[in-house]
Give the backbone structure.
Amino acid sequence: MSVQLLPKKLKDLNAALIDQFLSCRIFSVNLCENLTAEDCQIQSMEDSSPIKWHLAHTTWAVEVFFLAHYVDEYTNFNDSYIQLFNSYYNGVGKQHLRRNRGLLSNPSFDEVIGYRKEIENRLIGFLNTHSLSVEQIDVLQLVIQHEKQHQELMMMDIKHAFFHNPLLKNINNKVNVKPPKLKPIHFIEYTPELTSIGVDQQSKNLKSDQTPYLFSFDNERPTHKVYVAPFKLADRLVSNEEYLEFINAAGYQNSFNWLSDGWAYINKNNLTCPMYWFQEDSKWFVYTLQGKQPLDLNQVVCHVSFYEAQAYATWRKMRLPTEFEWEFASHSNKCKQMIGKLWQWTSSSYSAYPGFKPYTGKVSEYNGKFMLNQYVLRGGCVVSPDNHIRNTYRNFYYPYQSWMFSSIRLAQDLL
Amino acid sequence: MSVQLLPKKLKDLNAALIDQFLSCRIFSVNLCENLTAEDCQIQSMEDSSPIKWHLAHTTWAVEVFFLAHYVDEYTNFNDSYIQLFNSYYNGVGKQHLRRNRGLLSNPSFDEVIGYRKEIENRLIGFLNTHSLSVEQIDVLQLVIQHEKQHQELMMMDIKHAFFHNPLLKNINNKVNVKPPKLKPIHFIEYTPELTSIGVDQQSKNLKSDQTPYLFSFDNERPTHKVYVAPFKLADRLVSNEEYLEFINAAGYQNSFNWLSDGWAYINKNNLTCPMYWFQEDSKWFVYTLQGKQPLDLNQVVCHVSFYEAQAYATWRKMRLPTEFEWEFASHSNKCKQMIGKLWQWTSSSYSAYPGFKPYTGKVSEYNGKFMLNQYVLRGGCVVSPDNHIRNTYRNFYYPYQSWMFSSIRLAQDLL
Amino acid sequence: MSVQLLPKKLKDLNAALIDQFLSCRIFSVNLCENLTAEDCQIQSMEDSSPIKWHLAHTTWAVEVFFLAHYVDEYTNFNDSYIQLFNSYYNGVGKQHLRRNRGLLSNPSFDEVIGYRKEIENRLIGFLNTHSLSVEQIDVLQLVIQHEKQHQELMMMDIKHAFFHNPLLKNINNKVNVKPPKLKPIHFIEYTPELTSIGVDQQSKNLKSDQTPYLFSFDNERPTHKVYVAPFKLADRLVSNEEYLEFINAAGYQNSFNWLSDGWAYINKNNLTCPMYWFQEDSKWFVYTLQGKQPLDLNQVVCHVSFYEAQAYATWRKMRLPTEFEWEFASHSNKCKQMIGKLWQWTSSSYSAYPGFKPYTGKVSEYNGKFMLNQYVLRGGCVVSPDNHIRNTYRNFYYPYQSWMFSSIRLAQDLL
Amino acid sequence: MSVQLLPKKLKDLNAALIDQFLSCRIFSVNLCENLTAEDCQIQSMEDSSPIKWHLAHTTWAVEVFFLAHYVDEYTNFNDSYIQLFNSYYNGVGKQHLRRNRGLLSNPSFDEVIGYRKEIENRLIGFLNTHSLSVEQIDVLQLVIQHEKQHQELMMMDIKHAFFHNPLLKNINNKVNVKPPKLKPIHFIEYTPELTSIGVDQQSKNLKSDQTPYLFSFDNERPTHKVYVAPFKLADRLVSNEEYLEFINAAGYQNSFNWLSDGWAYINKNNLTCPMYWFQEDSKWFVYTLQGKQPLDLNQVVCHVSFYEAQAYATWRKMRLPTEFEWEFASHSNKCKQMIGKLWQWTSSSYSAYPGFKPYTGKVSEYNGKFMLNQYVLRGGCVVSPDNHIRNTYRNFYYPYQSWMFSSIRLAQDLL
């Protein structure tokens, strides 16, 4: 569970919320410390956005979803921003064309930072003078969690953008720690039968003395019963070495490994390895947040699409787990690398849980309208912010996408 | 269940199989009785195929999957046909480009009929001289059921092709019977809890005296437990009148009715009504197998995509049933129009049942490789051949497609 | 000059016109003698049309441009044909979508033949009862010449369609005559200076006793002065052997041979040889009207695009002739293969001659609106009908196109 | 003629060249004075480039075409820049993908300025120590003129980019001067007959005391005779008021005004007015370098494509001039707005003059390979740099393009 320590005494609630809010906001800006204004301007594909746009959009969310709703006679910071930084909320109004986000040199990075500060001040001003209703706390939590999601997107997007520049620059200055030698995968057996999946409330214990405070998105709710047959789950993720065996065994050239759409996709796009892998003089390299690196066979494979994950599993005569198998297994500690290492593709199509209730109001479009054609990933990753991922968290991407930090965990039937 | 009366005495088995095979084969050719060779030549989109191609491909399946496999020292009827009439079986070899099927004026319709007769004779010759193994019976049943699937595709494809000719000709000469006035939809309550879905074997009772003989595809297998929460299901399909209310209420103009991909799709393609609907002088018409007809408000709505079905249900503040809800409900007789009227979209992504085993050998690609990005329809339709549809039958299409005879059945949670 | 023997005595004029008209009409139908109705149905690319459509469209032209205009109270044969068989005449009305011509299985081939006969009868009826004005004769000549243009298109289009069927069938049953061994190209010197290009009238001598009758299209008119500097022109067309030297010298892999657009085009489409050339076991073959043939090195190269023609000339350190150089040279007999062998690309962009007057009325769109982005070819080809090509005839295609019977004649400056 | 004052005494030649070079270089950087680094980063379409890229590419040209060629044992400033800032010179090597120029946040604007300074220093060092050959002077002149061409492109590209940002910012701070009321167009008569077009040398009088120094590109050479029939030319360009009459007369809705390709293009792209025009509350506005402005009816129409220019002329029952007519007329002073106001579309396809010799060496691809599918514009425009445009200057664009400062001058035949 995503756990936030919240005040034991209610009178400190708003101070704690301000603290939580500001630490989230600062973290976003800190992500840009090695980047120039030009770096924050570029957009390398329609699926991604400029860093500057993320900084503005997460501010827009605070303004539109909270301030404009709860502040009396609220005046927009800048009317044109309402359209410029709207991502996909038709209920809020028109949106600047997604693929043209990278063309918005105005407002400048500095102006966006100014926008951020003003909106932060407005929110803090409100929190200093109002006692929040449960609904208001819920919306505030949502916009904070929303910004955390965008913090991860910022790392995905800048990595993708820099990869399209032959200079292949470092993004952060961290040292790449060599992981210990991996042990062979061991399969853990689970016999769940009828089990409970999901959570019921966005926030619990909020006004009690009891910690922790718990958060969830609407798409994780409500809890419901699912029958899950006995299964086996790999105790770690697939390694680069194991994935390279698939490549070297002509795995990308054999249609029998692939689902029909995946086979068409990799052939149309001439794909023969995961995103960010490339060869020079027959040696494999990979682009990372620390720049170009020789492929480390001992690392977990990263940036695979659903198509690739499924093909790899098929080639191993295994399969991907369902999201229900994954969630059940995550409650015990028998498997490693479940939370916070790399996202793990499941075989589950992203759809509504029985009894699903989307958010109401302007945020109703947050999750529900994407429940088609996408597949669920579980577990979070190294660039997911702290206090953001939990066992019930459902991430979702189209099966062709691989610019998120995605990996493979194998599963098998338990006969 | 799809029921075929098979011989009580085993010695008559092959004669019965010949009979079953030939009646299926004749039915295909009879579907062309009102069509010219030119009609059978045309292909109006990449998703569809020419009638002539269907006639050849279903023959190819008999040759490649049965004769070439079981006849000693088999010689192909025509080596080039192996590629020309291969649909998507990479294991069999290369395929003529799908979108160019309509360019194959050679072989001619008459030559394809000649191909059909020769292959039929070869198969009958084999059946007259061999006692079949269970595997051989299974493959023979599969190619027969395969041809029945193509009989339905033939009706879908010729309708689509004729719609793209402004002359809007009749396809068959049947008289359009006016349906009785529909009663309001009534919702039936079901409380399944843990239930059994699917079937276990392709064929049962084959060599016993007991009828019926039962057939299923690999994707319907095996039986497995699914927890299904209480739900309500509409006792009939949505009518044209009801769907027109959605159109007239600007249902196609309000993004909140639509999933994100559906909204993008209908806007990109300027869709404002189901396929085959059109307006003249503000009156609605629909293209049918009997040519252009005024829209009959009392008929069931047909040729809707998943996007449209889902949007309609959302607009009614309801939802589509899962395929498990549908299958459970189909075993009682409380709902009407369940089997043989029109296909009914379910909210279930097409995926493998737990323990799914695809066919082995050349037919392994029959169903399994399509288990991605498509959604399940249940129940068959008026152009599905006799003895073809059953409660467990899973049809599947992409959510944008609507040239199959698809409709909408509403569902709701039962609180 | 395109010469038609016309009557010395005026009273025989109409009889002669009927004769000319019918012999043209019969020739079109005779082109189909080896084709099935299915062959006549198919359309292999947007640039081409089905044979059946050509048969109907040339009839449509007689009906729309002549009968509907000159017959009192004319009733269309079939109102829907006016749209179905309109090629690109916005002034006549809407057109059936060009790329969907191959979907018109209705009307059938037989019905189109019926349409042809009825329109022919109507025209003959008119000619038998009316003395034609000069304008009427001009329009009649135009629709005859129009049909001749489509006769050539029919051969181009059916060849293209059959090439996309792996069976690679023969189209006609003529025997391929082996040409005599070619002599090396010799360059002829010309010093035209100020010269006269084009013609002035559509028809001359029409009502006089003097033959011949002369025809020209509006785009060949009027005569005008052009200054042409001294130049040298190859006395024959480029051979397959010579073109193969270009291929073997990696001519398709060296950007310096190509204009920028051509280089982009051949790379995008992976072109490495002329249309209809292909290799099997390292040997070159070519698809011809007589089916698949080994490449005859002694034949003239055919089916090259402007891009290819220009690249070849550049590689030889030469250039293509302008259309004015070509026309000037054509008036003497010093060069061979000028008329009736293969079309010859010129470097001239297709544009209006000074003082150009497009046709008036419904045929005004015949030529003028295409005077952009296309390049002029001169000289006609083996599938051009008799009495159709002349020195001033200007054919035009986009520089990427090569399904017409096009070849290369080299030119050089004369210093 | 483009006239540069050059030294009367030869010993001062290099100092004068340094002066000419540096003043050109400074002008480029000065164009950015109102722009941020982010503004200089963005690329709004494949046809355009980021400002930063222009600054780097014009430096690359000095390095690759001059320094790398003439400096002994030259070391590249940065090897990766050779590919990054190569526009289209296959002879120099591979090029960074054109449409991805906007993704190069590295090198930063400041780094590009550093690149510029270092290359300038290297060139000046060379000029201070070497006596230049004629070839070296020619190459130096070429890279200076090349940079001037890019100075105009910078204004075109930043205007296009800013137009795609709803904030519609000012680019420069100049005041929009209201032009005097236009007089009706008057047509000037010309009777050239055989005339001389083009120039013969890149530079004349270079080592003599006589000024001026004359420059021309290879595509303006050599002089050659052209027969030009008598014609009439409008004494000024078409105004916004006149063009608006065309719009209001449904000029964009009537196919008869348009060439076939133009009609297809405006319909596919839903064009109903020139680029940068838009309506708000039924009033016309236009985006200019000074931001959004009400449409000034008294200004010359700008940013029209060839398609639009031709359609307008056709609608007026006139035509565009040929480039030969334009050049002939430009030598007298009877027409206004010939040089330096706005580019004027001619009806001439961009092609080689008889006897055309492209540059040799790495700059051979400068002009020649684009001589296809494009049309010639003459006369320069307000954002063309000083000392850059001359009577013989041939600009060229595809007929769909309109982001350059292009206008319309009408012509007619003189009978």
